[in-house]
Amino acid sequence: MLAKKYRLSRGQIGLIYKKGKKKSFGKLSVRYLGNRVGFTRFGISVSAKVYNKATARNRLCRIIYDELAKSKFIVNRDMLLTVFSQLSEEEAKKNINEIKCAENWL
User: Fold this and answer.
1) 91 burial class (0-12, 13-18, 19+ CB within 10 angstroms)?
2) pLDDT band at 105 (very low <50, low <70, confident <90, very high)
3) CB count, 10 Å around CB of 101?
4) Global pTM value
5) pLDDT tens digits, one per residue of 15-68
6) How far apart are alpha carbons 8 and 104 in whole angstroms?
7) What Å distances lie between residue 73 and 36, 41, 53, 60, CA to CA?
8) DSSP codes, 29-96
9) Yes or no: domain 4-105 corresponds to CATH 2.60.40.1930
């Protein structure tokens, strides 16, 4: 699991929606904004339209957070990952790796 200091709060998420830039990676989209804290922070948003049950949404969030914890990001950004279609575990891992590879030009 990703440590709490690497996760975004609700206020920070609202700021990213207002001022952040957006890129799409398969069934994920990433909104990002620079920060001054010295490390990358993440947030994940999975709509109830994607998965009706909270247990399915939470499971997907855990999978994505675990994958993010394994990979080290160099840039200092706040990143909000939004899932807009159903993802399998393999697809989620593949999309996270794509984001990791594209981190330099985000």
Assistant:
1) middle
2) low
3) 11
4) 0.88
5) 999 999 999 988 899 999 999 998 899 999 999 999 999 999 999 999 999 988
6) 21
7) 15, 10, 31, 20
8) EEEEEE-SSSS-EEEEEE-TTT-SSHHHHHHHHHHHHHHHHHSPP-S-EEEEEEE-S---HHHHHHHH
9) no
